[in-house]
Specification:
Blueprint lengths: L1 E2 L8 E9 L8 E11 L2 E12 L3 E9 L2 E8 L16 E10 L2 E5 L1 H4 L4 H10 L1
Antiparallel strand pairs: 1-2, 2-3, 3-4, 5-6, 6-7, 7-8
The chain binds calcium ion (CA).
């Protein structure tokens, strides 16, 4: 998915990818988010981060707005009868938010994600 991640007005690239069999474990998998910034020389890798997997949650892109990458998420949760969802069929639904902060991807909680004042962030970054 494309969107501006470093507030320069130019769309960058975010990629969600999955690696299977990590640690030699059969059909276990982990999901990662990687971002590439568009520069004069082309796309340049910036950061990647573990965002989910078979035993935690699955994600799909929702949007990139105001520098925030938003995913729809599904995760296993406890059903009304007190048992957990089977691993095939997670019934929990939510959202996850990521930003590129000091060149590193970072997950935000809901309160932090709404809506970020990047002018203030840049002022803080300059001060440090
Ligand atoms: Ca950009």
């Amino acid at each position: 998915m494309t969107g501006d991640l470093d507030q320069d007005g130019i769309d960058d690239l975010a990629i969600l990818y999955t690696l299977e069999g990590i640690g030699g474990g059969g059909n276990n998998y982990s999901s990662f988010l990687a971002v590439f910034l568009r520069t004069e020389e082309g796309l340049k890798f910036s950061s990647d981060i573990l965002v989910g997997g078979k035993s935690s949650r699955s994600l799909s892109f929702k949007s990139i707005e105001n520098g925030v990458i938003t995913f729809d998420t599904r995760f296993s949760t406890i059903r009304e009868d007190g048992t957990w969802d089977p691993s095939c069929c997670p019934s929990g639904e939510g959202e996850a938010f990521y930003v590129l902060f000091y060149g590193e991807l970072r997950e935000l909680n809901v309160a932090e994600a709404a809506p970020i004042d990047w002018k203030k962030v840049r002022k803080v970054m300059k001060a440090n």
